[in-house]
Design goal:
The complex is a heterodimer of chains A (297) and B (387).
Chain A lengths: L2 H32 L6 H17 L5 H24 L7 H23 L4 E2 L4 H4 L1 E4 L2 E4 H23 L1 H11 L1 H6 L4 H26 L2 E2 L5 H14 L4 H21 L7 H15 L14
Chain B lengths: L1 H21 L14 E8 L6 H17 L2 E2 L2 E9 L4 H13 L5 E3 L4 H14 L3 E3 L14 E3 L4 H15 L5 E6 L3 H18 L5 E7 L7 H10 L3 E3 L4 H14 L5 E3 L6 H7 L7 E4 L9 H14 L5 H20 L4 H9 L4 E3 L2 E3 L11 E7 L2 E8 L2
Parallel strand pairs in B: 1-3, 1-4, 4-5, 5-6, 7-8, 7-9, 9-10, 10-11
Antiparallel strand pairs in B: 2-3, 11-14, 12-13, 14-15
Helix pairs in contact in B: 2-10, 2-11, 3-4, 5-6, 8-9, 11-12
Classes of the chains: A mainly alpha (297), B alpha/beta (387).
Chain lengths: 297, 387
């Protein structure tokens, strides 16, 4: 393998990994606070892609307006889902909420099939994001730079929100114990709503970035990214936001490198991701950054 | 109280979603057990990764049903079930058609894996099935109840290998295949065999890379292929996936021509691929620019009038599959599944929209292939290749 080829693989890996990281932070944040694996995360991601698609395609909005609108609308839908699907189960066993999350995931997928149709649609990619430039023989998409940038910026904002603000402090309190948080005069319902709004907005940004990179959207598009980002979140230590970013990058780079070094195994790329999940759960269930329990959101 | 109402609404919405999602054949109960109806089942991917293929096929079947709504003085009723581009669902769909809807014959499905998943079920139930576009040889092999109105992959693979060798002067090739699809894996194998025979070089395939259903990122595979510098890349698979694959290839700087198979013929291939898929060449079953029979002209006219768009090979094959079954029922003079099967097996020189259909001992149609190229955002007819 030449150095150029290796660097090209590295660029591909960072590009894919940053996408995983971006989606995984929303996943992990919701888990960190509610101890709920939000199976609908991938489907909220799909909704965002469609809202952006319709904004550009039907209402002829400029792409950036459409993207912002998609994030806002998706955040609102996230709050609605929480209100209808999770809040009534606040005092039920955790398994009920989990089942409710699976139900909402199916609901969104089937609703998507009915409303948007089963055939894939081509997502508009603004020329700004379509450029490719060559660095010493390595082809780099501008998205390969933008996506990690967006991921890092959002990570910083999220860390600030969780660790430096009053809402963040309330979030961390809720993640420990709802009852005690309530006794401390924290409005638990409001904090959980905020968590979902932020989580859904993050899913929306992820969905838009994903669609820019892979400009083919369909109602079931969220399932696989959802699973992959779940693996990334577990890899980094579920509940840990920085861990999710690290997990995302590692998963993306490992997947690409598997194909790069063992081309004959390229068909097992997805299986490989799940093998990583099993190994992590067997040997280090807390994930890479999972040790410092106090760090959990 | 308020909470309960919200929860209730959510549950109702959930059920509405599921029911609507599975809909499409809700008419079955209304006409159950009506003796003067010929019940024909259709299982096609209306949703999922192959949705475009299934929907195009169903358009053709519905059109044929509209033009020829009766046989033996009885009304033909279609029962259309979505197999969701999923092998397990395909088996369920066929079981449902046979046991619940009591169909006498079945049409479907786009996608060889989906058809193969249903093979055992139709064989055991002794209900004949006619595939529209599953091209893998195994679909009909050792199954007396499965027929198809299209050519098979040993032929299609040879056609594309010859095109690469003769027209593109290619001496080396790389293969990128979807290992979740029997179609893609089978077609690649036949392409490889034919290309090796043509070049006389056992090492002419310089790289074989795999991916699975659901893969969106092909950069690792493509970077590996790029280093091997093949003359041509053969990548048969789903229209949307291959469009993304070629787009990423161009972004990585791969200049090689791409070749594919019949599944690339979908408007989505061009919509998703855009500028990147210009010049992609693939084989398919039929082109409106090369009508072969009187029926071809009739089909193009009726299709354009009904749907106000250009017809495609899958609609034409769906159209033919319906007509072949109707013809068999007519010759059998009965709507008994066994008799329809026997009549189907004797189908000879039937004039369909995609060509003359004669079933061989396996139940396959021996037909010519057309080669199309993407030019200026449209599929353009290049040539016809006879077996």
């Amino acid at each position: 393998m030449t150095l150029t080829e290796f660097l090209q693989h590295m660029a591909n890996g960072v590009s894919l990994g940053s996408l995983y990281a971006l989606i995984a932070i929303g996943y992990t944040m919701v888990y960190g606070i509610l101890r709920l694996i939000n199976f609908a995360h991938g489907d909220i991601f799909m909704i965002a892609a469609y809202v952006a698609f319709f904004g550009i395609g039907i209402f002829s909005l400029p792409w950036w307006v459409s993207f912002i609108l998609a994030v806002v609308i998706t955040a609102f839908i996230g709050a609605l889902i929480e209100r209808a699907g999770y809040r009534p189960l606040r005092n039920s066993p955790r398994i009920s909420v989990l089942i409710s999350a699976i139900g909402i995931s199916f609901l969104l997928e089937n609703l998507g099939l009915v409303l948007f149709g089963g055939r894939p649609k081509a997502f508009y990619r603004p020329p700004v994001f379509a450029q490719v430039f060559l660095v010493k023989g390595v082809a780099v998409q501008v998205l390969t730079i933008y996506i990690p940038l967006v991921t890092i910026v959002l990570l910083a904002c999220l860390l600030y929100l969780v660790h430096k603000t009053k809402t963040g402090m309330a979030m961390r309190a809720c993640s420990r114990d709802f009852e005690t948080a309530r006794l401390m005069a924290i409005n638990v319902d409001r904090i959980v709503s905020v968590t979902f709004v932020v989580g859904s907005a993050l899913a929306a940004v992820g969905g838009i970035m994903w669609s820019l990179k892979f400009p083919q959207i369909h109602p079931l598009m969220g399932i696989f990214p959802g699973l992959k980002c779940f693996i990334a979140a577990v890899l980094g230590g579920i509940g840990n936001i920085t861990g999710a970013v690290i997990g995302g990058f590692i998963l993306g780079i490992l997947e690409i490198m598997l194909v790069a070094f063992f081309p004959a195994l390229s068909g097992y790329r997805d299986a490989f991701a799940f093998v990583i999940l099993i190994l992590i759960l067997l040997f280090r269930p807390t994930g890479i950054l999972g040790e410092t329990m106090a760090e959990k959101v | 109280m308020y909470r309960k109402v919200v929860a209730l609404l959510a549950i109702i919405a959930l059920f509405a979603g599921i029911v609507a999602g599975c809909g499409g054949s809700g008419t079955s109960d209304e006409v159950a057990k009506e003796p003067d109806v010929v019940r024909i089942g259709v299982f096609e991917p209306m949703t999922g990764l192959s949705a475009a293929g299934g929907q195009m096929t169903v358009e053709g079947i519905k059109l044929a049903n509209k033009l020829y709504p009766e046989v033996l003085g009885k009304k033909v009723q279609l029962f259309i079930v979505d197999n969701k581009s999923d092998k397990a669902e395909a088996k369920n769909a066929v079981t449902r058609l046979i046991e619940r809807d009591k169909v006498v014959a079945i049409i479907g499905s786009y996608g060889s894996s989906l058809s193969m998943a249903a093979g055992d079920t139709v064989k055991k139930a002794r209900v004949p099935a006619v595939g529209c576009s599953p091209t893998n040889p195994l679909v009909t092999l050792n199954n007396d109840y499965y027929f198809r109105v299209c050519f098979i992959d040993p032929f299609q693979g040879t056609v594309m290998a010859k095109y690469a060798y003769n027209d593109l002067n290619a001496r080396t090739a790389a293969i990128i295949r979807n290992v979740s699809q029997d179609y893609s894996v089978g077609l690649c194998k036949y392409f490889e065999d034919a290309f090796k025979k043509l070049t006389g070089d056992p090492n002419c395939i310089v790289a074989t890379l795999d991916y699975q259903d659901g893969t969106q990122d092909f950069t690792a595979q493509l970077t590996t292929v790029q280093q091997k510098e093949p003359d041509v890349i053969f990548a048969p698979g789903n229209y949307g996936d291959v469009a993304l694959l070629i787009k990423q290839a161009r972004e990585l700087g791969l200049k090689q021509p791409f070749l594919g198979g019949d599944t690339l013929e979908a408007p989505e291939f061009i919509q998703v691929g855009g500028q990147a898929v210009e010049g992609v060449v693939f084989s398919t079953h039929y082109s409106k620019d090369a009508p072969v029979t009187e029926m071809s002209k009739k089909f193009v006219e009726a299709y354009t009038q009904e749907y106000h768009k250009e017809p495609n090979a899958f609609a034409a094959l769906g159209f033919d599959a319906y007509l072949v079954i109707l013809d068999a029922i007519k010759r059998a003079g009965s709507i008994d599944s066994e008799k329809i099967r026997d009549a189907l097996a004797e189908t000879k020189d039937f004039e369909g929209a995609t060509g003359i259909i004669t079933f061989d001992e396996n139940g396959d149609a021996n037909k010519s292939a057309v080669i199309l190229v993407v030019k200026n955002g449209e599929f353009k007819y290049l040539t016809t290749v006879n077996p």
